[in-house]
Design brief:
Length: 193
């Protein structure tokens, strides 16, 4: 994908988003550097602060077989990244709602998220309940916490049976308005009684 060699036995991490502090880019760049001794590939589509754009482009130049970066936005490419990724990274500082983690669940890309706001509400972490987990979560806003989450993802990928279970759990989640509206109707009915 995006010029990276095809390596189906190597986990592919994806990110589509704004390259700004709020989205955790100050954690992601050093965490990726710290884990490059593990075999993985990383694709990014986004734009934002020049410091982060240059940092990710430099990472792609230094590790052309592991990192591919596209600065800008392309809706078609965004969907391809979500669909092709084994893991989708969202280390946000704060995230009132978040949509990409919901897209990644439907596409079968396991989200790696910081347990904050809508990310915490919509993703069940592996450490919370392995049986119903839909992703990997970390709590502290720290590079070391994201590093640990990335390593947890790489270890999970090596256990394909567990990885596929979490992936399937996520794909079966229903965040549609149809389900939500039925829950509201049930609530209203219970209040009327």
């Amino acid at each position: 994908m995006l010029g990276l060699p095809c390596e189906p036995n190597v986990p592919l991490l994806g990110l589509v988003g704004r390259l700004v502090d709020q989205k955790g880019m100050d954690l992601l760049l050093p965490a990726l550097h710290a884990t490059l001794d593990r075999r993985f590939q990383f694709v990014l589509l986004g734009s934002g602060m020049p410091f982060y754009q240059e940092g990710f482009k430099r990472l792609a130049r230094d590790y052309p077989d592991q990192v591919a970066v596209t600065i800008g936005y392309d809706n078609s490419l965004a969907h391809k990244i979500e669909a092709a990724s084994d893991f989708f990274v969202m280390p946000s500082k704060f995230e009132p709602c978040g949509l990409n983690q919901l897209y990644s669940l439907k596409y079968g890309s396991v989200p790696i998220v910081r347990a904050v706001g809508g990310l915490d509400d919509s993703i069940i972490g592996l450490s919370e309940s392995a049986n119903v987990a839909t992703g990997i979560k970390f709590n502290d806003y720290a590079v070391t916490a994201l590093e640990a989450a990335l390593n947890e993802a790489f270890d999970l990928f090596e256990d394909q049976e567990s990885y596929k279970k979490i992936r399937k759990n996520g794909m079966l989640k229903d965040f549609s308005w149809e389900r939500t509206s039925l829950e509201y109707l049930d609530l209203y009915d219970s209040l009327l009684q």
